[in-house]
Amino acid sequence: MSTFKQYSVLPGFNLALGFTLLYLSLVVLIPLSAAFIHSAKLTWPEFWSTVTAPRVIASYRLTFGASFAAAVVNAFFGLLVAWVLVRYPFPGKRLVDALIDLPFALPTSVAGITLTAIYAGNGWIGQYLEPLGIKVAFTPIGVFVALTFIGLPFVVRTVQPVLEDIEKELEEAAAMLGATRWQIFRRIIFPTILPALTTGFALAFARAIGEYGSVIFIAGNIPMISEITPLLIITKLEQYDYTGATAIAVVMLVISFILLLIINLLQWWVHHRGIKV
Amino acid sequence: MSIEIRNLSRQFGSFVALHNINLQVNPGELLALLGPSGSGKTTLLRIIAGLETADSGQVLFNQEDSTTKHVRDRHVGFVFQHYALFRNMTIFENVAFGLRVRPRKERPNTREINRRVTELLQLVQLDWLADRYPHQLSGGQRQRIALARALAVEPSVLLLDEPFGALDAKVRKELRAWLRKLHNDMHITSVFVTHDQEEALEVADRIVIMNRGRIEQIGTPDEVYEKPANPFVYEFLGHVNLFHGRVHHGQAWISGLKIDVPEHAAAEDLNAIAYVRPHDIEVSRAINGESALAVHVVHILSIGPVVRLELMYGDNPTQHTIHAAISKEHFRELQLVKGDQVFIKPRRLALFPNHDQEQLIY
Description:
The complex is a heterodimer. By secondary structure, chain A is mainly α. Chain A has one domain: MetI-like fold. Chain A contains 13 helices and no strands. Chain B folds into 2 domains: 3-236, Rossmann fold (3-Layer(aba) Sandwich); 241-354, CATH 2.40.50.100. The longest helix of chain B has 18 residues, at 169-186. Chain A binds chain B through residues 167, 169-170, 172-180, 183, 187-188, 191-192, 273-277, and chain B through 49, 51, 71-72, 74, 76-78, 80, 82, 84, 86-90, 97-98, 101-102, 133, 135, 146, 149-150, 152-153.
């Protein structure tokens, strides 16, 4: 115990740690472990057949695939938006800056209905895409669009402050040494914002995996094609198949956890390559 | 390479940063731009570097107009006050940066880059730090690396913006001497900005003293210190005592002292201010015939070879502190203690007729 507790000039360590653990237990750990306990009612073969049913597998693929694709797109365009907001003065900049947060604030079902209305075959954008053979609403592409929408602010808001903090002098120094604009971006700016960008990517990805409200409207929820895993869990609940629902929930939980762990390791690795202030 | 600046002006809104600057930097010279903050010295340096643009006027490198040349093509090395080292690269990569970003055709091969970088790191005596990152270095070390990085591209001109401004006094002194030595060895045309008079006087071949966007005086350290062109330069360079008085037909009356000033023979009853440096004040126990000022010793600082005296002149409402510096031997001869009355007179003074102190806002 004496080696565990380190003396510090900051008071209240015991109290703060105790509170943190209690809070974390009540809010996160206990509900999550309940899912594991509940699914343990199933025998192993039962569990396995539930979570590997073709319809469920298809939903995993869609959920994680679309989330990943949306997070990648957001990482790219979010960086671009953050760059424009930080680097260039333009009229209405504050308004644009405020609009970025809209996906945070908007109820997800509102976003879902709006996106569906726009991308449906007779919607504003859908009517031009349909003749080209691109169907967005009620297809996996719709899922991807909705997930992109809700993930954008995560990347912008994590990259923006870091980009603002980059000293102008670094770029000036690089230019004086003969570097081109592209070389300055690639060798100086990008490595500096990479940790923030991976954080933004991870947040957008995690959010997209858990997203439900905005997706179910635009997805159309066709089994095997545009059905996401969270919807499958709801479906099972509606059929009073609580154990089946928790079984799938546990799989989601484990996969999400592993993915976040990988991203965190990646962040740690990026951070410890000397990118420190 | 020589640098010439012609009729250069720059305004930021209504603030005049530079007003019609003309300046010649000789090849191989180490020139200091000295001035208080807001005097335009950094703006001038940044315009020479190409990091800032001028409203009007020209910058010439070797008589060739380079005003519109891009930063990349000026072949200028620049050292920033806050180092501006690339945090995500090792010290080695920082120094190698300028070589690595060259177009493929001009880029030296890996072995050549290794050789050059190692050579430069040895030059700044920090080759043992090659694998570290900037945040692991002290301020003085970082600035030396920044200098090595600037030198890696073999610039024809080296510009330094308050290079020692962020360092503590001891390191600053060391680096000053080191920069002087480095310049003696390399003879690269260099311009550095500083607000530290001592630094400029100690390091530079020539000093340009700037104030409010204008050049007040250009000269060697000796010239500007011994023959300041105007009251601003006098006050800015080192400690001075200021006296008010009048001047008439080659004679000045200053604080009750009558002093011959033959160079102002034409003056007709003008207000004047006079400057006397502390070491130009003669302190004695008795009046030896001539007119002298009676003062009281208020404070004695006798550390080092020079003894600094704080002397009080006049009575309460018009009291006036005068600083004097005398040698230790002279101090011993006088056997001064606090509260003693002594007599002083200026050995040398600089008189500026027709000046009120109000004009000296800076």
